[in-house]
């Protein structure tokens, strides 16, 4: 149980991030500013695309202990900024004073994500919590909070007491999480990673490491193939359909079930041990997406979507178990920065292209089939990369 709580304690601040996003988007939509709401909804992706690599170049110069302590301080600062942001809502007129706290909050969240990028390795060494379990905690918190965030956001806009309650709970959770991490935060070693000046911003130097090359290739190909699947399934929802038994619910329920298994049992619950096995499971996921696009029998479609959720869940956990575990070192901060930049860019590009395609008459089912086909192609490409480049490193 202590391992589970520690894993969840790594990412408690994501709850504030998700809630704040929903509160602001709902507030701006109801105030009649849909364009601003759309920008705020996409701000995470834009900041990661523009700044992740730039920030990682400076963060890598700090020692690990200093980075971890700075991360904890930032998370407490986030609580104060979060309260300042939500306290001025709801509103009637838009001004920069309303948007500035939101922007600062998102910028600090991005900074924290780079500062604490390799904290998972320290947690693994100190608490014997494998990387798959840490990633499962992050995925569970993000998806579970997203499910309740709209309701909580609405209550915060209507009841001021809800804001106070969330503030107090967040402060208590933050203190508890810092106490759990005391074995890492108060170590005396503080040696920054050694870095040559000509290494800065260098993607070409990163991909000379075959493991990093595979991981970055996965971020690009995986997001190009699967980033739009949830969007397309949402587009196929019927207003007169079942509220609970639908394709997107089946996918997320299966995903959370698999991630819960990983959180409880660790990487032993992940049946993947080689990069090529991850690629094969990714190909199966693409095949299931393709079959879903061609199927109109609802019970079978729900089973296929559940299969997609299970496969993709274990693909992500396998990535942590097989790839990320091997990447501790001076290049990991840069790797994390490039992964965020390229992954988010690919994801944002896919969503925009799908939106334009549907606007010009392409059906969601057909586009879902294209996504499934590309998923299988991406799996073949990753299989080839693993066969040619990575076999001696894993």
Characterize the structure shown:
The chain is mostly helical and 394 residues long. It contains 17 helices and no strands. The longest helix is centred in the middle third of the chain and has 28 residues, at 131-158. Mean pLDDT is 84; it is low at 188-199.
Strand content: under 5%
Quick check: average pLDDT? Answer: 84
- With helices defined by DSSP (H or I, 4 residues minimum), what is the helix count? 17
In the CATH classification, which architecture of the largest domain applies?
A: Up-down Bundle
Which overall shape is indicated by the principal axes computed on the Cα atoms?
Answer: globular
Number of domains: 2
CATH top level label of the largest domain:
Mainly Alpha
Total number of β-strand segments? 0
Rg value = 21 Å
* Distance between the first and last residues' Cα: 31 Å
Largest sheet: none
Class per helix and strand makeup: mainly alpha
User: Poorly predicted ranges (pLDDT <50, ≥5 residues)?
Assistant: 188-199
Fraction of residues in helix = over 70%
CATH topology term of the largest domain:
Growth Hormone, Chain: A
Order of helices and strands: HHHHHHHHHHHHHHHHH
């Amino acid at each position: 149980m202590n391992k589970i709580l520690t894993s969840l304690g790594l990412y408690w601040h994501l709850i504030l991030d998700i809630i704040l996003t929903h509160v602001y988007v709902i507030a701006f939509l109801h105030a009649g500013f849909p364009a601003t709401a759309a920008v705020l909804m996409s701000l995470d992706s834009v900041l990661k695309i523009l700044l992740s690599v730039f920030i990682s170049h400076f963060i890598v110069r700090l020692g690990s202990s200093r980075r971890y302590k700075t991360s904890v301080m930032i998370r407490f600062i986030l609580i104060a900024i979060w309260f300042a942001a939500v306290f001025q809502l709801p509103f009637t007129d838009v001004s920069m004073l309303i948007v500035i706290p939101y922007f600062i909050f998102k910028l600090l969240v991005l900074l924290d994500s780079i500062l604490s990028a390799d904290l998972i390795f320290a947690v693994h060494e100190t608490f014997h919590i494998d990387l798959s379990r840490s990633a499962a905690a992050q995925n569970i918190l993000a998806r579970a909070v997203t499910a309740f965030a709209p309701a909580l956001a609405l209550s915060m806009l209507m009841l001021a007491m809800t804001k106070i309650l969330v503030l107090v709970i967040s402060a208590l959770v933050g203190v508890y999480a810092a106490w759990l991490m005391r074995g890492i935060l108060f170590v005396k070693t503080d040696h920054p990673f050694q870095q040559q000046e000509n290494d800065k911003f260098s993607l070409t130097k990163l991909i000379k490491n075959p493991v990093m090359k595979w991981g970055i290739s996965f971020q690009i190909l995986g997001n190009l193939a699967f980033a739009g699947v949830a969007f397309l399934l949402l587009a196929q929802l019927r207003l007169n359909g079942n509220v609970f038994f639908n394709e997107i619910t089946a996918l997320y329920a299966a995903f959370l079930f698999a991630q819960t298994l990983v959180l409880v049992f660790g990487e032993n619950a992940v049946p993947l041990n080689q990069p090529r096995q991850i690629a094969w499971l990714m190909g199966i996921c693409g095949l299931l997406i393709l079959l879903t696009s061609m199927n109109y029998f609802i019970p079978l479609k729900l089973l296929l979507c559940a299969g997609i959720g299970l496969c993709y869940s274990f693909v992500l956990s396998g990535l942590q178990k097989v790839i990320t575990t091997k990447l501790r070192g001076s290049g990991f901060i840069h790797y994390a920065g490039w992964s965020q930049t390229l992954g988010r860019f690919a994801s944002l590009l896919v969503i925009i292209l799908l939106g334009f395609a549907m606007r010009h008459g392409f059906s969601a089912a057909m586009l879902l089939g294209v996504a499934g086909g590309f998923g299988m192609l991406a799996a073949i490409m990753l299989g080839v990369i693993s066969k040619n480049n990575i076999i001696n490193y894993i």
